[in-house]
Amino acid sequence: MADPVKVYPAKPDKVYFFATCLIDLFYPEAGLAGIQLLEREGIEVLFPQGQTCCGQPAYTSGYHDEARAVAAAQLNLFPADWPIVVPSGSCGGMMRTHYPALFRDTPHQAAAERVAARVLELTDFLLNVCHIQLQDLGEPDTVAMHTSCSARRELGLAGVGPALLGQLKQVTVVDPARAEECCGFGGTFAVRHPQISGALVSDKTDALVATGARGFVTTDCGCLMNIAGHAEKADKAIVGEHILSYLWQRTGGESPP
Amino acid sequence: MSQSSHQHGHPGDFKPRADAALRNPKIRQNFRQAMDGLMSKRKAAFADWDLEALRTLGANIRLRALVQLPELLEQLEARLTANGIQVHWANDGAEACRIVRDICVARDAKRVIKGKSMVSEEMDLNHYLDAQGIEALESDLGEYIVQLAEETPSHIIMPAIHKNTADITDLLHAKTGTERFPDVEYLTASARKQLREKFAQADVGISGVNFAVAETGTLCLVENEGNGRMTTTVPPCHIAVTGIEKVVARLEDVAPLLALLTRSATGQPITTYVNMISRPRQPDELDGPEAVHLVLVDNGRSSIYQDDQLLDTLRCIRCGACMNHCPVYTRIGGHAYGTTYPGPIGKILMPQLLGLTETADLPSASSLCGACAEVCPVRIPIPDLLVRLRQEAVDGDQQHPAIVRGHGSKRNRWEALAWQGWRLMHTSPTLYRLGTRLAARLRRLQPVRFGGWTDHRSAPKLAARSLHARMRERQP
């Protein structure tokens, strides 16, 4: 009943990259940064063009037939035995922990289990499979880390983001008050219960601002869109960035055009 | 079920109540402060424990008890009966109320003193007895305050947590003539004095039960004020009421559950009082009630029991840690839910007890952040159950047809159609490519408002070129 011990694979020659729909449509530069970080580690990145969405929005909304159909359309995109890296705790959590139950007793069960077992969140992969060593080339900076609830609780990755940022010598990492509290995104929750979600994101943004950090970085585009969108709308003094973009730029990577 | 509207408001009004609570600075402050305190106390209380191992043990004890529930209940009844405790079975809250009334009437009892019992809240027992001409007075300080204020508990462990000292000072002054002196000790002493006489006068004491041990026929009851001890020993008759799921197999199961319960609830290593009730007063004993009854209340639990996944709901030991750690509960408080049990456990339990027709907004009112499941002492996978109930509310899964009463009541053809469109777009790579390319082309026409999203945030901005498009350029 306790979480099983996660066994990391040896560093592979290749990985499949599952970008997630939010990265694809709204934050492609974060996806590109992740791909370039992997390539710099000597890994060939395979990007299946047939990928769309992991199915999570319909799944958490209760439309499981639709979620299953969309998830099923992703299952055959990863035929070889390479790890599947996902630049999101939320989508990674969906694929790793919910696919097996979603496809139980269906013809796709075995395929879903084969996919789920190979899914790793990208920062987890960089830290614990690649054993990445980041060389910080940037100016001194202060950032706050926001780990998504799915990365923190579903995948147990609370330590990963801080460990990566900790390798950046010129970067001071600060913790907001109540760091483990949700930012209020929750997918369709933000639209179904906008006032509750709004109260959560307002408090989260205030806590991030109170750290005095220039900006915050996060593992998940849902949180990023939520917190940065609120900061912009409410004119609060903090900017947000996906952790992959931040790591890539701090270590000499070019900003994407 | 006797979930009367005058008592709890209405779960169907969740959204307006939640919005009103969010705008109420006193609610926001009282709950935030209280929940922060409870979270840090819990954390400190488990600091020296292998908490994950203990939670696994607690979960397994509860699971094992539920697997054998019918047999354990029969064993419990046999042991209690042999010990001289009379056992009654109630299908629903109304029947449980009638059983309590009949016991009172048979004893010509007019005055009842009560210890804390959430099942009695579920039954709406106080109002029922009042209508029958029987006075039922709450003796737990929080419940006493809530009763004086003619409200309902806003938390299952700390019923009056929504009130601060100033509120309570005013309330006690208005209702009992207590001097307006906003000092916790003074107010507590005043309430204690009022209640003391009532214990002596009461004909019947009614309490809840934390664990009912089948092996020995023991009713365990934890409390901090001694009012539970008084309720169950001073009046000549004690009636315990409990849900049928509170049974555990063995006496040795109680120790780990107790260790989890009090630390999870209030951060206490043990409560001030732990009552182990096994029989009425014996001829050679000086105190204790001459008659003890146990009312075992089903009230929808046996239908939850029929489903392998929903069954996990019944593991709950009512510690309240899920609400203490819930970011939604912390902001809207307990009354917004309009149900006996608020917070995460309420969001999964109440739709199953009341049906989804009136409660469909409860399971959706969660970001699925998982804080509740992380602290649950018996590892109830609350987010998974929330998702299951969302599916039930919209009849969203042909593979696992919905079974909860009122399933499908939230299904809306426009939303269903939208998800079918979403499915079409995301199962066809060609349609997805064309659709995302079109959206990127037209992104300057993107609306600046998106339903509730833009009440609090600027609209997300579509990128000029998707990652798919960029990768096509990189990988010719």
Task: Outline the secondary-structure elements.
The complex is a heterodimer of chains A (257) and B (476).
Chain A: E1 14-17, H1 21-25, H2 28-40, E2 44-46, H3 56-61, H4 64-75, E3 84-86, H5 89-102, H6 109-118, E4 119-121, H7 122-128, E5 141-146, H8 149-154, H9 160-166, E6 171-174, H10 189-192, H11 194-210, E7 215-218, H12 221-233, E8 239-242, H13 243-250
Parallel strand pairs in A: 1-2, 1-3, 3-4, 5-6, 5-7, 7-8
Chain B: H1 5-8, H2 14-22, H3 25-45, H4 51-67, H5 69-83, E1 85-90, H6 93-106, E2 111-114, H7 118-123, H8 125-131, E3 135-138, H9 141-148, H10 165-176, H11 184-201, E4 204-207, E5 211-213, E6 218-223, H12 227-233, E7 237-243, E8 247-248, H13 254-266, E9 273-277, E10 291-297, H14 301-304, H15 321-324, H16 327-332, H17 343-354, H18 356-359, H19 361-364, H20 371-375, H21 382-394, H22 413-427, H23 429-441, H24 453-456, H25 467-474
Parallel strand pairs in B: 1-10, 2-3, 2-4, 4-7, 5-8, 7-10
Antiparallel strand pairs in B: 5-6, 6-9
Write up this protein.
The complex is a heterodimer of chains A (257) and B (476). In chain A, 47% of the residues lie in helices and 12% in strands. A four-stranded parallel beta sheet of chain A has the order 2-1-3-4. In chain A, strand 7 (215-218), helix 12 (221-233) and strand 8 (239-242) form a beta-alpha-beta unit. Chain A has 257 residues and is of the alpha/beta class. Chain A has two domains: 14-128, no CATH class; 141-250, Rossmann fold. Chain B is of the alpha/beta class and 476 residues long. Chain B folds into two domains: 5-302, 3-Layer(aba) Sandwich (Rossmann fold); 413-474, no CATH class. A six-stranded parallel beta sheet of chain B has the order 1-10-7-4-2-3, with helices on both faces. A four-stranded mixed beta sheet of chain B has the order 8-5-6-9. In chain B, strand 5 and strand 6 form a beta hairpin. In chain B, helix 17 packs parallel to helix 21 (382-394). The termini of chain B are far apart. The interface between A and B is large, with 75 and 74 residues.
